[in-house]
C-alpha cells in the first residue's frame, strides 16, 4: 500500500513539473524573430505548405512593438527576392519584413497559374503575426511588385487591418473592387513611364484590363473622399502627385519615375527608402 502511495506521489510530482514547464514559458517564446514559417492551405484539393520568410534585427528589443512590412514578389519570382533589398531596414530594426511565397510563383488575380485564395492566405499570416508580443498591430503595411502589386491592390480593396499599401509597377484594373466596407488606408503607387509590360497608360495586358496609372490613383482618392486639388511636385527624375484631406487622415500618393521600365527598383535606387519613408510618416 505504501509502495502504491509513493508511486502516486511521484507520478503527481512529475506531471506537476511538466505542467509547470508549459505554463511558465519565457516571454521570448512569443517574440517574433527571423525564421521561416510554413502555412498549410487547401489548393485544388491538395494541402500545400507555403513558406513565409520572417526577417528581423538580430537584436530584438522585447519591450518594443515593431511595424510589419509584408512584401509580395512578382510573377515567376520568389519570396527570397526581398531579403537583400530590404535588409537595410530589417537589420536596423526599422521594421520586421514578412515575405510570403506565391503558389506556383504567382498571386492569383484571375489569369495566373495559381488558384490559391491569396487574400485568405495573407489574412492567416496577419493573424499569426498578431500572436507575437513585439508586433505593432496598428502599423501593418504591404508592398508588392508587378503581380504582387496587383495582389496588394486587391488586399487594399477589402482592407480590415492594413494601414497602407505601396503597389509598385502596376495599378488597379477595371476588375479590382474597392469594397464599401473596406477600411480606408493610405496609398503610395509607383509607376515607370517607360514600362512596356504594364504601361502607365493602361489597357489590356497579361489578361487584365488595367486602368491608367493616373486613373488608378484617382479612383483610390475618390473612394476615400480626398480633395481633388492635386499637389504636383516634379524633379529631374520624378513627378509626385499627392491627394490629401481624405477620410480618416489617409494620404494617396502617385509617383511617376521618369525613364523607368518595369523594374523600377533597378532604375530608381532610392525606391525602397521612399516607400519606407511614406509608411513611417503615417500617424
Describe, in plain words, how this protein is organized in 3D.
The chain has seven helices and twelve strands. Helix content is 27%, strand content 27%. The chain has a ten-stranded mixed beta sheet, with helices on both faces. It has a two-stranded antiparallel ribbon with strand order 8-9. The model is unreliable at 1-28 (pLDDT under 50). It has helices at residues 2-23, 87-92, 118-129, 147-157, 213-223, 264-267, 271-281, and strands at 35-43, 46-55, 66-72, 96-100, 135-145, 164-168, 186-192, 203-205, 208-210, 231-234, 238-243, 252-257. It has 283 residues and is α/β, with parallel strands linked by helices. The chain is globular and about 45 Å long. The protein has a single domain, classed as Rossmann fold (3-Layer(aba) Sandwich). The termini are far apart.
Within CATH, the superfamily carries the name Alpha/Beta hydrolase fold, catalytic domain
What is the 3D form? globular
How many structural domains does the protein architecture include?
A: 1
Sheet bearing the most strands, described?
Answer: 10 strands, mixed
SSE diagram, text form:
Layout (H helix, E strand, L loop, with lengths): L1 H22 L11 E9 L2 E10 L10 E7 L14 H6 L3 E5 L17 H12 L5 E11 L1 H11 L6 E5 L17 E7 L10 E3 L2 E3 L2 H11 L7 E4 L3 E6 L8 E6 L6 H4 L3 H11 L2
Parallel strand pairs: 3-4, 3-5, 5-6, 6-7, 7-12
Antiparallel strand pairs: 1-2, 2-4, 8-9, 10-11, 11-12
Amino acid at each position: 500500500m505504501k509502495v502504491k502511495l509513493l508511486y502516486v506521489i511521484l507520478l503527481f510530482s512529475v506531471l506537476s513539473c511538466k505542467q509547470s514547464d508549459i505554463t511558465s514559458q519565457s516571454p521570448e517564446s512569443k517574440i517574433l524573430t527571423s525564421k521561416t514559417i510554413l502555412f498549410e492551405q487547401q489548393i485544388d484539393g491538395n494541402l500545400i505548405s507555403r513558406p513565409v520568410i520572417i526577417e528581423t534585427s538580430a537584436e530584438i528589443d522585447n519591450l518594443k512593438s515593431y511595424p510589419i512590412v509584408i512584401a509580395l514578389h512578382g510573377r515567376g519570382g520568389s519570396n527570397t527576392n526581398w531579403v537583400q533589398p530590404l535588409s537595410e531596414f530589417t537589420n536596423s530594426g526599422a521594421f520586421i519584413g514578412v515575405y510570403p511565397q506565391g503558389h506556383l510563383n504567382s498571386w492569383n488575380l484571375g489569369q495566373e497559374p495559381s488558384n490559391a485564395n491569396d487574400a485568405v492566405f495573407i489574412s492567416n499570416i496577419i493573424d499569426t503575426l498578431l500572436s507575437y508580443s513585439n508586433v505593432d498591430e496598428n502599423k501593418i503595411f504591404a508592398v508588392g511588385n508587378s503581380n504582387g502589386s496587383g495582389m496588394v491592390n486587391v488586399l487594399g480593396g477589402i482592407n480590415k487591418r492594413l494601414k497602407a499599401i505601396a503597389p509598385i509597377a502596376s495599378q488597379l484594373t477595371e476588375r479590382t473592387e474597392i469594397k464599401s466596407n473596406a477600411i480606408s488606408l493610405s496609398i503610395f503607387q509607383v509607376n515607370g513611364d517607360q514600362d512596356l509590360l504594364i504601361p502607365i497608360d493602361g489597357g489590356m495586358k497579361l489578361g487584365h484590363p488595367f486602368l491608367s496609372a493616373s486613373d488608378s490613383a484617382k479612383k483610390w482618392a475618390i473612394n476615400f473622399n480626398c480633395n481633388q486639388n492635386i499637389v504636383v511636385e516634379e524633379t529631374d527624375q520624378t513627378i509626385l502627385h499627392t491627394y490629401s484631406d481624405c477620410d480618416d487622415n489617409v494620404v494617396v500618393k502617385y509617383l511617376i519615375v521618369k525613364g523607368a521600365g518595369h523594374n523600377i527598383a533597378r532604375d530608381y535606387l532610392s525606391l525602397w527608402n521612399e516607400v519606407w519613408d511614406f509608411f513611417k510618416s503615417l500617424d
